[in-house]
Structures are given as structure tokens and as C-alpha cells.
Amino acid sequence: MLNYMKIWRYLFLLCVIVVVTFAQTIQHCPQPENIRPCTCSVKKFGLDIICEFTDHSHISSAMTALKAQQNTIIFYLKLRHNNLPKLQGFIFLGLVVQHLTIHNSSLATVEESSLSSIGKGLTQLDLSQNSLTYVPSSALVNLHTLIILNLNRNKIKELRSRSFAGLDTLEILNLYENKISIIDPDAFIGLDDRKLRRLNLGGNLLTSVPTSALSSLDVLKKLEMQENKITSIQEGDFEGLKSLDSLVLAHNQIREVPARVFSHLTQLMSLELEGNQITHVDPDAFIGLEENLQYLRLGENNLHAIPSDALRRLHRLRHLDLRSNNITVLPEDAFNGYGDSISFLNLQKNLIKVLPAMIFDNLNSLQTLNLQNNKLMHIPEEITETVIDTLGVIDISDNPLICTCDLRWFSYWLKNLKDKDDDIMSKKKTVCVMLPENREYPVQNIPLERMGCVGKTGRISAAGITSSFSFDIIKLILIIVTAAVL
């Protein structure tokens, strides 16, 4: 009995503690006039404070009003579109802030002590679209719980040694659209062998891959270096990035993909190379990517042929984008050896005139095929027979198609399409020209009966009226010859 009484007493005390703690953590906004022009609302995990189109003095007054409340937890503090060239020291002293945004506020200086007081609780810091010319390392060094740091769209010119030292828990670092042209080999010291998973260096002025600085980031998963001025890549550039599964090199000035350049990236699943000036892909370019690469984007380059020899080793490739190149000819074996896993194939905006009879024979998993805006005049039914049952989307618009019986497959396929994309396909304007009248018809509505096509479906097909007429003449001749013999 005594034991039960003790248990109930402990439970009662526990309930009291929980209730008291809960009461202490219930959040309330200050009176609106005390923080104006800032606004406050209560969210599930704390207060949401927004200060816009104001200046330092008003923001400081609002922070003072918030400090006057005990146990205040600010889940979101958003300072946007303000005149705030300097973040003063200790401005947040006495506050608990988990997500801090200072966006588009002309911020150029972050004093060393401005963030240290919230270092134990801050998990996300967004300083994007400001006027920072360097990484405010001394202000960041004590942010030991920070997970995301966003420095996009500033004016940072270089990453100095140990720029991010102290950020032990950082997982995502965004430096997109700065003016970075120099990265010290020790720039990321303090992030290596830690938790950094994603690094965005896109939209800067890099002319080569900063190999020395990157080589120690062995847990990095995604590296983005799009929209720089990188002119070449070579074997060894990505050595050390053994965990990388996504690499973005789009919209640089790369002219060729040399042998073994990605050989250290054995875990890579996605590779983006579109928007470069690539004319040549070495047959051994993708060594090391055999077992994991699934997404390859080579669009908007200057390829004159599908780099089949290089692609054949990619056994798990699902998404192949070759749009907007100068591909003119497709060999019949263009997809042999690797095509059976491809579900998405984009060949739009090339110069393809003819599709070989067996070009799609190995594409057993194909679901989306884009042939838009090429030079195709004919797409015979035999070419699509092997993929017609798996296709959910096919785009043949903006080609100089001639209306013939060869195109009847498209209208039958469209009518039978049960995929969710059928509305999109139905609205897509795909036309052909009827000769000799030079009249345009929607491909799904070409006058098959008037054209006289009798086919496998029992409607009308490839041979058309001409075949039927020829057959009748042959029968008539046979009858006449037989009668003459008799």
C-alpha cells in the first residue's frame, strides 16, 4: 500500500512539474504598439516576429520589448527589406532565436558579438541578398548548433582560410551568386569530417574546380557549381568527395568531358552538365559511375552525335537529357547496351531527320520520349512498336511531319492513353502537312479513311487505297488470263 502511495505521489509531483514548465513556456506576443512597425504572431514552437521596411532603431526597440518578457522563444525572426547596414553587438542578448533571417537589408557588417548570445539555439541563419564582401567568420564562430547558413546573393569575393570554423553542426552552406573567384585550400577547415551535406558555389566567378579546398569534404552529398566560368575539368578534380551523390556543373564553359574525370565519384547518382560548350565526351569519361548514375543531363551543348560509347557502361541510367544539341544522325545501335533502364529520353531541339527502324528496340522501360523540334518528316509505326505500350508521354510537335498513313499510330495511342498526362498530351499542338494541298492537320485527327489507310487495327492501313486498287487489278488480270486459257 505504501508503495502505491509513493508511486502516486511521484506521479503527482511529475504532473506539477510538467504543468509549471508548460505554463512557463507558453508564449505571448508583446503589445503591438511596443514592437511596431514589427509584427508578432504565436506559432506552435514559439513566436514569429517580422520586421520589414524599417531601420536599426525600430528593430532595436522591438528587441528590447521582447526581452522584457520572460522565457521568450522566437522560432522565426525575419528582418527583411530594411535599412540595416550594420548588425550591432549584443542586439539579441537575452533572447532565444532558432531561425534568423536578415534579407535584402543592405547588411555589410556583422559585429563579432552580434550573434554570440543566440549561438546555443540558432539552427538556421539567412543573410541573403545583402552587401557582405566577406564571410563574417568571427560572428559565426560560436554558432555551435547551426544547421543551415545562407549567404546567397552577397558580394563576397573570396573564401579565406577557416572561413567557417566553429560551425560544427552545419549541414547546408549556400554561397550562390556572389563574386567568389578565390577559395583558399583551408577555407572549409572546421567543416571537414563533420556534417556538411550540401554546398552551393553556383553563380560565382570560379574558373576551375577548387580541388584542394573540396578534397576534405568526404561526407558531402551535393555539390553545386553551376553558372561559373569553369573552362575545363580533369581527372582528380573531385578526389576526396567519396560520398557525393549529386554534382551540378551546368552553365559553365566546359568544352570536353575527358577520360576518368569522375572516377572517384562512385556513389554519384545525378550529373548535370547542360549549358556548357561540350563537343566531345571521351569513351572512358564515365568510368567509376557504372553502378549508381541514374540522371545525366547533357542538354544545351554542341554534341553532333550521341556519345554512345561513353554511355554504354551506365547500367542504371534512367534519365538521359540530350536536348538542344546539334545531333543530326542516330545510329541504329545508339542505345544498345544501356537503353533498357532508361525511362526518360529527351532529344528535343536537335537536327534529327530520320529515325532508324530499330532505334528504340532496347528501350524497354521508356515512359517519356521527347522528339519535339527536330527535322522529322516521317515517324513510321514500326519504329514505335517496341515502346508504345510503356510510353505515357511522347512529344513529336514542331517537326515538319508529312500526313501519311505512317502516323496513324499516334492518334490510336493518344485515344488509348490512360495515364494522368493524357490531358496534357491532348492539348499539345502536333500537326502534319497534307500533300499536295499543303494543308495542316492535327496528327490525332488526320483523315485516315479519306487517305485510305487499312491497318493492323482493322481500320485502314499503311498500304491504303493504292494497294487495294493494285490487288483488284491483279485479280482481274488473273481472271482474264484464266478465261483465255480455257
TrEMBL record:
Keywords: Leucine-rich repeat, Repeat, Signal
InterPro entries: Cys-rich_flank_reg_C, Leu-rich_rpt, Leu-rich_rpt_typical-subtyp, LRR_dom_sf
Signal peptide: 1-23
Residue span, LRRCT domain: 399-454
Pfam families: LRR_1, LRR_8
Statement: the UniProt record of this protein carries the keyword Cytoplasm: no
GO CC annotation, single: cell periphery
Domain of life of the source: Eukaryota
Entry keyword Cell inner membrane: no
Gene3D superfamilies: Ribonuclease Inhibitor
Name listed for the protein in its UniProt record: LRRCT domain-containing protein
Organism: Microctonus aethiopoides
